[in-house]
Automatic annotation (TrEMBL):
It comes from Novosphingobium mangrovi. Pfam families: Poly_export, SLBB. The keyword DNA damage does not apply. Residues 1-25 form the signal peptide. This is Polysaccharide export protein. Keywords: Signal. Residues 122-172 form the Soluble ligand binding domain. PANTHER family: POLYSACCHARIDE EXPORT PROTEIN GFCE-RELATED. InterPro entries: Poly_export, Poly_export_N, Soluble_ligand-bd.
Length: 197
């Protein structure tokens, strides 16, 4: 029994080693054509930012594999490499940067994956019952964010909100059937205004 398991592992390793170059070539040729961990169901590409918690896996290198949090400066401190810029990158771009840093120096032909374990929070203030900081969940809509904050107060202007994405100016967004669905991003600040009679 142990001998057959050893043979199975060897066959699996050979299959993976043979298939890896073809898969890498396919992925490099058409990254936008395939859905991946960087693309949400709403089709928007997710960019990493300070406060995101990541799992970085370097296969067969336990000293680097682990959980990391992106610092306020937008970097991840990776053993053997030091600070690696993560802010604004996708998980695949960060994996590529780590691979480039390790390749040929510390690890021969490194295989790396990066996944987001938890996203930075979003903020909602103004005329909601429980304003504050909340944990982000993928594909969170503006209406769901308001519900997360306990819903509107009786003074709330319910037909519009003010949304500020990280690093951008505040914009007015409309609620209602005729308006498009607005997705909240990690780090967003939402402000619900007061209605005037």
């Amino acid at each position: 029994m142990p001998r057959s398991i050893g043979k199975l592992r060897l066959v699996m390793a050979l299959v993976l080693a043979t298939a890896a170059p073809a898969l890498q070539a396919r992925d490099a040729a058409s990254p936008a054509a395939r859905p991946g961990p960087d693309t949400a169901a709403n089709g928007e590409v997710y960019r990493l930012g300070p406060g995101d918690k990541l799992r970085i896996t370097v296969f067969n290198v336990e000293s680097i594999t682990g959980e990391y949090t992106i610092s306020s400066g937008g970097q991840v401190a990776v053993p053997l490499l030091g600070a690696v810029r993560a802010e604004g990158a996708t998980t695949q771009q960060l994996a590529d940067a780590i691979r480039t840093g390790l390749d040929g120096t510390y690890v021969k032909d490194p295989r790396i994956t990066v996944e987001v374990l938890s996203y930075r929070p979003f903020y909602i203030l103004g005329e909601v019952n429980q304003p504050g900081e909340f944990a982000y969940k993928p594909n969170l809509t503006l209406e769901q964010a308001v519900a997360t904050a306990g819903g509107y107060t009786y003074r709330a202007a319910r037909k519009k909100a003010y949304l500020r994405r990280a690093g951008e100016d505040e914009q007015v967004v409309k609620f209602g059937r005729e308006s498009r669905v607005i997705y909240v991003h990690p780090g967003d600040t939402i402000r619900i205004g007061e209605r005037y009679l």
